[in-house]
Amino acid sequence: SISMCWPVGNWAKWLDMTYIVMDLEWNGAYSKKAHGYFNEIIEIGAVKLDDTLEVTGRFHAVIKPVVSKKLSEIVTNLTSITDEELEEGTTFFRAVSQLRRWIGSGKTVLLTWSTTDLLVLMENCRFFYGEQIIPFMHSYLDLQAYAQRRMGADMSQQMGLSRACEALGISEEGSDLHRALDDSLLTAQILMKVFEPASFEAAVSPASQEFYDRITFKTTIISDIDSPLIQRSELRFACENCGRNLKRTSEWKFRNRAFFAEFHCAGCGKDYTGRIQFKQKYEGIDIKKRLAERVKPEAEEASGQADPPKEAKEEP
Questions:
Q1: Whole-model pTM?
Q2: pLDDT class of 199 with cuts at 50, 70, 90
Q3: Element (H, E) at 301
Q4: Which pLDDT score is estimated for 139?
Q5: What pLDDT is attached to residue 302?
Q6: Residues 6+ apart with CB under 8 A from 170
Q7: Separation of alpha carbons 204 and 238, rounded Å
Q8: Whole-angstrom Cα distance, residue 181 to residue 102?
Q9: Checking DSSP bridges between strand 205-206 and strand 271-281, what pairing results, if any?
Q10: pLDDT for 212-260, tens place per residue?
Q11: How far is CA 207 from CA 141, 204, 214, 228, in A?
């Protein structure tokens, strides 16, 4: 269960804080200027909450697209935004200027449901302003990830807004889903349900250059076994039966996003298949290793069938 009892010491830290919960809708189109596919924002919705999490304001802007006048069928069906609405919309520059004035000065934290909206906003700032810095953002929190942790949900999969509302007992009745303002209002209700000062403070990130570098870093799987990023010592395995270092008996092969090779133990005669994956993250190289025993052909013939390979625990 989620406790809404806020310790006085932690609560004092958030006095005079303003929370801006924002949601965006966008249309994908090819752009020569962007040298590829571009997600152009066509609607901004935001809700302002004070330090007691009371709603003190709402912001809504429809933006007239300039990259592609035609909405994709998916966007049209999902949002119900009409061509007439877009034709009467404002420009991205004016919408951001109005939003900035509406947010005002003082301590603020921007929240979105997942970082997808944030990345799209950065994409639009790069396109229209020439740099990805969001002019009205001083600190940021991914409310989807925060809410999932507070709810004790599985973090391996992203929880949708509707599912989170259902789990927290928040009614969607009367809400126009996939419209920016209504979605931001639902997201704000989730914040009210899950907020707790200490965990919230730990999840907030200042909008520093390091923050932008981290959020735009592309995690990649290393597929070259000779990459200088791979330490040769990481390619070694030990026999899980006798503990001796295994001898590699085949070349490394890359498949299914990992390297595989065959190994033999000279001590106990066991054969293994070793699997290792190198993932380059912002923090460094993440390594996952796994070793599976291979049954010898003569053992298979003697028993009539092969036992499934035994997998060792994955190393951290």
A1: 0.78
A2: very high
A3: helix 297-303
A4: 97
A5: 52
A6: 164, 186, 189, 190, 193
A7: 42
A8: 15
A9: unpaired
A10: 999 999 999 999 999 999 999 999 999 999 999 999 999 999 999 999 9
A11: 10, 9, 11, 32
Nearest to 92 by CA among 55, 53, 135, 56: 135
Q: How far is CA 208 from CA 138, 165, 205, 227, 280, in A?
A: 8, 31, 8, 31, 22
> Counting Cβ atoms within 10 Å, is residue 269 exposed (0-12), middle (13-18) or buried (19+)?
exposed
Token duo for residue 188: 């704000």
Tokens 């979105």: give the residue: 112
Q: What is the DSSP letter of 291?
A: E
d(CA 81, CA 274): 53
Per the structure block, which two tokens stand in for 18? 């303003």
Asked whether the predicted pLDDT for residue 296 surpasses 90, the reply is no
Q: Write out pLDDT tens, residues 49-78.
A: 999 999 999 999 999 999 887 788 788 778
Exposed/middle/buried for 292, CB within 10 Å: 0-12, 13-18, 19+? middle
Statement: residue 17 has pLDDT above 70: yes
pLDDT of residue 78: 80
Look up residue 90 and give its DSSP letter: B
Q: What share of the chain is helix, strand, coil (3-state, %, to 5)?
A: 30, 30, 40
Helical (H) or strand (E) element with 197: helix 197-203
Residue 278 DSSP symbol: E
Residue 175 to residues 80, 129, 184, Cα–Cα distance (Å): 13, 33, 10
Q: Cα separations (Å) of 28 from 55, 120, 127, 235?
A: 32, 11, 14, 43
Let me know the angle formed at the C-alpha of 28 by 25 and 34, rounded to the nearest 5 degrees.
115
What pLDDT is attached to residue 9?
45
